[in-house]
Amino acid sequence: MGRARKRLRLEVGLAILSVLLFVATPLWPEWIEIVFGVDPDYGNGSIEWLIMELTAISAVVAIFLARAELAAPSVQTRLRQPHDDREVDLSSGFDPP
After folding, report:
1. Which terminus in the chain has less CB density within 10 A, N or C?
2. Does the pLDDT at position 28 exceed 50?
3. Is 36 exposed, middle or buried (0-12, 13-18, 19+ CB in 10 A)?
4. Percent of the chain whose predicted confidence (pLDDT) is above 70
């Protein structure tokens, strides 16, 4: 598997994780306290809103990076382009097709 393919999978995985956290945070706002065993915002919810904002931004960035990765032609695709098999006689100078 090529480097670009691994990067694409990483970007798609980060986008999925970010979207899941974005959706889970308003549905289950106490997940930070339960998972990590701390209450960093003392119950006012500001950390949850910050996480929602950061995950939304990271999801959008990861989605655009993955989309750009899919849209960019790979090196193998460029190498597989059809080539011209016509024979040209170079001994007599320029011979237009």
Report:
1. C
2. yes
3. exposed
4. 73
| DSSP string covering the chain | --HHHHHHHHHHHHHHHHHHHHHHHHHSTTHHHHHHS--TTTTSSHHHHHHHHHHHHHHHHHHHHHHHHHHSPPHHHHHTS---------TTS----
Residues 6+ apart with CB under 8 A from 13: none
Position 80 pLDDT exceeds 60: no
Contact 25, 83 (CB under 8 A): no
What does the pLDDT average to over 8-12?
Answer: 84
The residues spanned by each domain of the chain are: 11-74
